[in-house]
Amino acid sequence: MVNDPSTVTTRLKGNILLFAYFHARINLMMETNQLIDNMNRIGVHFLVDASNPGLTDPLTPAALLAGLAAQSDARMRLALIAVLLQRPDYANHAHEALELLDEPQQLTFKLYYTAAYYLQIAYANQLNNVLGLYIKMTDYYSEELNIEKDNSVADELRQLAELHKEITGLPLNWYGTYNSAAQRVITRLKKEQAWAMV
Hints:
The protein is an all-alpha fold. Helices cover about 65% and strands about 0% of the residues. It has helices spanning about 5-40, 60-70, 75-85, 95-100, 105-120, 125-130, 155-170, 175-195.
């Protein structure tokens, strides 16, 4: 029986679309693995991944920051806070990271960067205990985000959280999410200190 050409064409198109879909998923998975692997390389063990460590290509600080901001996975975007709190020297590459992102991703980056900036101040004592002396992040974006100044750090972080909720349209407790990320970083570093003393 001779196949109908239109049927064959439809099947071919379907196979091509299916291949493209899985190819995109594989690329996304590899990118995620690479980001987590690079976080582990710099000592930021915020996310767990099943891939073999150290087998992906190293990323520049700007590429790591931009890669996290561009992810569709909320956990990966939240990891921006962990990287910036634990490696505040990476904040020096913020502008370079922005150049790698499109406009919506840039806004995402600015929100999480600014959250990390406020959290560094709010958790200064705890971070000093686990990191020692560390670089103070520069406030690059709060004015652009229309955060009202001359309030407490907690109040300004709440303003940012409300803005984040408004922009994303997600009724999440962003203030709690920000603080949870900082607490996870500090808890992990305390455990690593304890393990090193065993």
